[in-house]
Amino acid sequence: MPNDKDSRGSSEPMSSHADGVTGDLVKLMPRDLVFVMRFMGESQHRLQSHFQDFIRAELAAGGVTMETHPMIHLFIENHAILLRDFVFAGVSLTRQFRVDEIERLTGDTTSMIRVDIWDQLKSHIETAEKQFRSQAGTLPKLLSAFEKPQGSSGSEK
Predict the structure, then answer these.
(1) Which of 86, 56, 51, 78 is nearest to 68 (CA)?
(2) Helical axes 99-106 vs 112-134, angle rounded to 10°
(3) Whole-structure pTM value
(4) Which candidate, 28, 17, 9, places its Cα nearest to that of 98?
(5) Could you read off the pLDDT of 5-32 as tens digits, one per residue?
(6) 117 and 26 in contact (C-beta within 8 Å)?
């Protein structure tokens, strides 16, 4: 059985591994891939501004203002973003489309959407692997926090 060092091999790209997992993900697309709406740009800003105004008014009704709490704008901004994201995520999750529905709607009889997704998945998997490898030198220090304490047998509760 190969050890961890054997599975890493050389520093060359793990394209065969990336191909394999990419192929698996593409096979699962009809069941697991959904397309969702995403509000962008000015829509995000508009809803966030609405929630900032709403929170500011609600706080003021309770006696909390910029005069009484000079740093309250940080609270207002953070909570407005949370509320905005909650609303958009909820709306997006209620409007999901499966890959076959998107192909039918766009008239994609050649499955080009699936090919494009396969290419993007493979590229992003390889990029993630490269990024992880580039940070491998810092791992021992980070992982030291997870080491078993010295003198501990591990059988104690």
Answers:
(1) 56
(2) 130
(3) 0.57
(4) 28
(5) 444 444 445 556 778 899 999 999 999 9
(6) yes
